[in-house]
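User: Here's a structure from my thesis project, written as structure tokens. My advisor, Dr. K., wants to see whether a designed sequence matches the one we expressed. Can you design one independently, without my sequence as a hint?
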């Protein structure tokens, strides 16, 4: 595999219809995701939707007693911030990078508009 990075390295993005992918592509931004980087905080506003390509992201649920069990792991097959597709404007969990790498992100408003019109 070459050192080039492509949004289609994320299997969620690779499976989009060509029409949706082409409309989303201009808004996608390649970013580094360093280990332990907090992507979302509990009850924080979701500004971006993330599509990991070589990083692994953990979703943890922060409980009342302060413990934070991991409830999901997302890699190159998923999307981080899918809450917005279910009507949420803020996250209820903490999302942190477990394994450093790269991913693409798009503004939440762009993704929401695109997927709501399809």
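Assistant: Designed independently from the structure alone:
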């Amino acid at each position: 595999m070459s050192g080039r990075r492509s949004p289609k390295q994320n299997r969620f993005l690779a499976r989009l219809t060509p029409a949706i992918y082409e409309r989303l592509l201009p808004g996608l931004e390649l970013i580094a995701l360093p280990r332990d980087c907090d992507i979302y905080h509990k009850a924080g506003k979701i500004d971006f939707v993330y599509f990991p390509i070589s990083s692994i992201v953990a979703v943890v649920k922060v409980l009342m007693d302060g413990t934070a069990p991991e409830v999901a792991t997302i890699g190159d097959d998923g999307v981080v911030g899918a809450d917005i597709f279910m009507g949420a404007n803020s996250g209820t969990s903490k999302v942190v990078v477990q394994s450093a790498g790269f991913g693409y992100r798009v503004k939440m408003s762009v993704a929401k508009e695109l997927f709501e019109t399809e």
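When you compare it with your expressed construct, this may help: Strands lie at 29-33, 38-40, 48-52, 56-60, 70-74, 94-99, 101-107.
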